[in-house]
Specification:
Structural class: alpha+beta
Number of strands: 7
Shape: globular
Radius of gyration: 16 Å
Number of helices: 5
Largest sheet: 4 strands, mixed
Strand order of the largest sheet: 3-6-4-5
Helix content: 25-40%
Strand content: 15-25%
Length: 144
């Protein structure tokens, strides 16, 4: 990880360590799946980013995505999907790395992106509680 900042994905009360997820994939290689760009871009609200009357419940806000950076991303690099458990329901897929690639693919009309899918156990291994922060360190000031 020399020369670059560690990558994290924040979602609700969770933080996902993207570098750890990539290391898991490197240590347990798997085939990439085909991610349906239109379906996922719609689910993440990327198709409505410029509509001020819409609110995204799961994806970035209209100013939360760097469109210029997105257009420079490598669409051959697989995005990462985690599988998260909420209560007793079966694990659901969550895009934990690749929102900018997904935006670019949607914007350019690319129908599919390669994607690696982590198991629920692998996802849990790279998932941290936001209140405790990555590595279990509190991000809440004692004086708060």
């Amino acid at each position: 990880m020399t020369g670059r900042q560690q990558q994290w994905f924040h979602f609700g009360p969770w933080v996902f360590d993207i570098d750890a997820a990539q290391a898991l994939i490197a240590s347990a290689p798997r085939d990439a799946l085909a991610l349906d760009v239109t379906t996922w871009a719609t689910a993440y609200g990327l198709t409505r980013l410029d509509d001020p009357t819409r609110v995204n419940l799961i994806g970035p806000t209209s100013d939360g995505i760097d469109r210029l950076y997105a257009m420079s991303t490598d669409l051959t690099e697989p995005v990462l999907l985690g599988r998260v458990r909420v209560g007793a329901i079966p694990p659901a897929a969550l895009l934990i790395d690749g929102v900018h690639r997904l935006y670019r693919a949607w914007h350019e009309g690319v129908p599919w992106l390669p994607a690696y899918l982590l198991t629920a156990e692998e996802t849990r291994a790279v998932q941290h509680d936001k209140l405790l922060g990555p590595g279990g360190t509190s991000i809440i000031s004692p004086s708060a």
